[in-house]
Amino acid sequence: MKVLVSDPIAKEAIELLKTSGIEIVEKTGMSPDELAKVIPEFDGIIVRSATKVTKDVIEAAKNLKVIGRAGVGLDNVDREAAKVKNIKVVNTPAATSISVAELAMGMMFSAARRIPQATFSTKAGKWEKKQFKGFELFGKTLGIIGIGRIGTELAKRAKANGMSVIAYDPYVKESEHAKVVDFDTLLNESDYISLHIPKTDETTHILNKAAFDKMKEGVVIINCARGGVVDEDALYDAIKSGKVRIAAMDVYEVEPAKEHKLFGLDQVIVTPHIGAQTAEGQTRAGVQVAELVRDALKQ
């Protein structure tokens, strides 16, 4: 059996596959056209988010039995094309839950105490102590949109910091770690709102102008989920109006996001889609996907 690893994964994952008797070829940075040319010789492929396993790639595959995604989202894999050819698609939805939840929690602390802004100011030789009066998270209400694995991990951490946690999720009736409420209640009552949902037709622009209008004045928005679940134009207007005090974003409608009008606002904290980028999370994701691919090829 021969597996192509087209995005970097943990060395522990590579070793696991090799010791299972699987031949590994590591070749990263390929375009879909380049991938389509080499894929016929492989029985499996492992990707992260960079490689696009398109319909053309899948149709070019002659021996492909499994596509492994080291991570949560499958936006970069054409699952319908894979289904037509009876190719198994596997991923690791739980591997980086803690990593993403911790980033969201860090965003909340950064927003409450304006840590990035204070860092830039102090490094610029200023001493603007009075300008950086912040807020405590203790006693505030966190509204989580999507109380799945990541949302639950965030809820645990927020409650440990003395926050009240409510959640909206049309697929969850109750949660051990949050009070499940309807969407409008979450918008009306939350001091902080954090999104932990995939981007679908149902969730695209779930936070739009109408949603922002229902929120508290000075609400904080955290998006470590997927670009497109927040209407970025509506968010910009909500920040400019003062409705949103601070927004912290790790994902964007268009990525890589090298230029964006939100970047010009001091009230916006940004990172380059690093939610899953921890050593521990990537090791878990790599090892778990390697196990899934190995098992699929043994069937």
- Reading the helices and strands in chain order gives EHEHEHEHEHHEHEEHEHEHEEH
Looking at the structure, what is the overall shape?
Answer: elongated
**What is the total domain count?**
2
The overall pLDDT, averaged over residues, is 96
Spans of at least 5 consecutive residues with low confidence: none
In angstroms, what is the radius of gyration? 21 Å
Counting copies of identical and different chains, the oligomeric state is single chain
CATH fold-level assignment of the largest domain: Rossmann fold
Strand order of the largest sheet: 8-7-6-9-10-11-12
> Please, what is the CATH homologous superfamily of the largest domain?
NAD(P)-binding Rossmann-like Domain
- The assigned CATH architecture of the largest domain is 3-Layer(aba) Sandwich
What's the CATH class of the largest domain, please? Alpha Beta
How far apart lie the N and C ends? 12 Å
Instruction: State the secondary-structure class.
Output: alpha/beta
Please tally the helical runs, counting DSSP H or I stretches of 4 or more residues. Answer: 11
Helix content: 25-40%
Tell me the major beta sheet.
Answer: 7 strands, parallel
Roughly what fraction of the amino acids lie in strands? 15-25%
- The number of strands is 12
